[in-house]
Amino acid sequence: MKFAIDSFACDSGKSGFGSYLLNLTANLPKNGNCFELFGSASDRYTYSSEIPFVAAKSGESINSLRFWHNFCAEGFYKKQKIDAVLYPAAARLMPRFFRTPGAAVLHDSLSMVLAKARFSHRFALRGFENVQAIIVPTQYIKNDLLRLGFDGKKIKVVRHGIDHNRFYQRPLEDESILNAKPFAIKRPYIIYPSRISGAGKKHVELIRAFEIFKKKTGAPHRLVLAGSEGEWAQVVAKAAFDSSVSSDIFVTGFFPSESFPLLLSGADACVFPSVQEGVGLPIVEAMASGVPVAAASAGALPEVCAGKAAMFDSDDLEEMAAAIEIASTDKKARQKMIAEGLVWSKKFNWQECALSTSGVLQGLLE
């Protein structure tokens, strides 16, 4: 059988969609099935040197790509003798109708995708309604689809992986300054690794809870907000500047991928107050790095944490501050979270994700 993987709309490997595709293609099983990537000619060498790549003739604008997927893709699949297709960026781009069986990967709750999509939401919804299988990384996203009326039989839960060669426990106990280029960061610090993209990420609430934590404990910790700046960046920057502990708050902006694992492993705790996560993989990356986690009891985070973190209500600043205190200063609780987190994080690996995804594609033809 021959399976094709659509690399369109995956940002040439420079986004969450792209990272997913890079890791998936690097771990696809060699079990007799044939895989082929297709997409823009500029991505010919982006994702894998072992999987054949075929450039599909289409324009670069989103409208021209939608046209190609809806009116030209089937002819392309027939010419390439494709049996089934995987759409890794399905929320952005996939056909509305499917003669060649397809599996759509949905990385976030569809309710949230539709709320953000506005004008184009009808294209996304029609595609998900008609595609033969939907692959989701958490039960939380599956439950959202069930609430929207989707048939549970076509929804497959396949955990995403993390790169355990990058995220692992490092011996940094005696280092007072962490040289995570392009920054040298004074320890101890607490980290929130997330793009500053909206109110639901709860950066402002975290800053206020951090003030409470500092006032109550007098701890020397700094707060590092590590993530690229989105539309909420000015609001967060003002909150940090106006904070009573502004000198202990560091906003990094975009942080280079190659240095991020070191930055994460150097933290005393990872705090994740976002209430709009369909997955929350930075939590698992922190656990794999031996870093205790405090996280919001919202979205997919309780599922992803699985009882291995200090949970809190992101709108209750006192409760968030208490969770930060536990994760960063409570020695007994920290030891327990570190030990359990290291074990739990091993369940998130790309080999199993790729094997299960290949199985979903194979199941479309049985």
What's the SSE blueprint?
Blueprint: E1 2-6, H1 16-26, E2 34-39, E3 53-55, H2 62-71, H3 73-80, E4 84-87, E5 102-105, H4 110-117, H5 121-130, E6 133-136, H6 139-147, E7 155-157, E8 177-180, E9 183-186, E10 189-193, H7 203-217, E11 222-226, H8 233-242, E12 249-253, H9 260-265, E13 269-272, H10 281-288, E14 293-296, H11 301-305, E15 310-312, H12 317-329, H13 331-345, H14 350-363
Parallel strand pairs: 1-2, 1-4, 2-3, 4-5, 5-6, 6-7, 10-11, 10-13, 11-12, 13-14, 14-15
Antiparallel strand pairs: 8-9
Notes on the structure:
It contains 14 helices and 15 strands. The protein is elongated. The strands form 3 sheets. Strands 3-2-1-4-5-6-7 form a 7-stranded parallel beta sheet, with helices on both faces. With 366 residues, the protein is an alpha/beta fold. The termini are close together. The model has no long low-confidence stretch (mean pLDDT 93). 39% of the residues lie in helices and 17% in strands.
- Percent strand equals 15-25%
Which structural class do you get from the secondary structure elements? Answer: alpha/beta
The secondary-structure element order is EHEEHHEEHHEHEEEEHEHEHEHEHEHHH
Mean pLDDT: 93
Q: Low-confidence segments, ≥5 residues, pLDDT <50?
A: none
Oligomer: single chain
Shape: elongated
Alpha-carbon distance between the two ends: 11 Å
Radius of gyration: 21 Å
Number of helical segments? Answer: 14
User: Percent of residues in helical segments?
Assistant: 25-40%
> Strands of the largest sheet, in order across it?
3-2-1-4-5-6-7
Beta strand count: 15
Q: Strand count, sense and closure of the main sheet?
A: 7 strands, parallel
